[in-house]
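Note to self: the last two entries modelled the partners one at a time, which told us nothing about the interface. This time every component goes in together.
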Amino acid sequence: EAGVAQSPRYKIIEKRQSVAFWCNPISGHATLYWYQQILGQGPKLLIQFQNNGVVDDSQLPKDRFSAERLKGVDSTLKIQPAKLEDSAVYLCASSLGLAQTYEQYFGPGTRLTVT
Amino acid sequence: GQQLNQSPQSMFIQEGEDVSMNCTSSSIFNTWLWYKQDPGEGPVLLIALYKAGELTSNGRLTAQFGITRKDSFLNISASIPSDVGIYFCAGPNQAGTALIFGKGTTLSVSS
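The predicted structure of the combined assembly is written out below.
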């Protein structure tokens, strides 16, 4: 069974530029999560989808971050414009459904550096 | 808000030693999870605990769900070099729909 795929693995941009990350969850997983992991911290949930609907985006900085999961499979997370404090690893995870939220499978992450 | 506090922040041990780390919260949790994150990878679920007082093992790893439901412990016996990584505790958010994580315990093992 293929795991959660993410791309790119690394990205370096200047502040005020925009960037997009892509995630392909495990086949059949209805719930998809985007986390931000700042160095030295645990992952922090940014947004959660159930199929193509948003379940929780309360911690997403909506003035600069956006995410979509149009067909209920792949998802993209965008930052526009980026700030220095956005430097972090962006992790995508998926689970079978909301009832299986405790069994999340994580992708390898995208390490973003904003200079 | 809900917060998970992990200690110690880091550990340096010799191969073969046993390791113990813990996670505490001021809030009650109904589920405790322990994840391990290797460098450059996402976290991987090690053990899930669903009942107060529960003791669960996964190979050389043993985790316990504290009786007060405000803490959990993870023990690793006879550590080996591949145990190196960051260990996170996690629990459900108030809505029960996603996870919140502690800051992690970084484990280093010298052979």
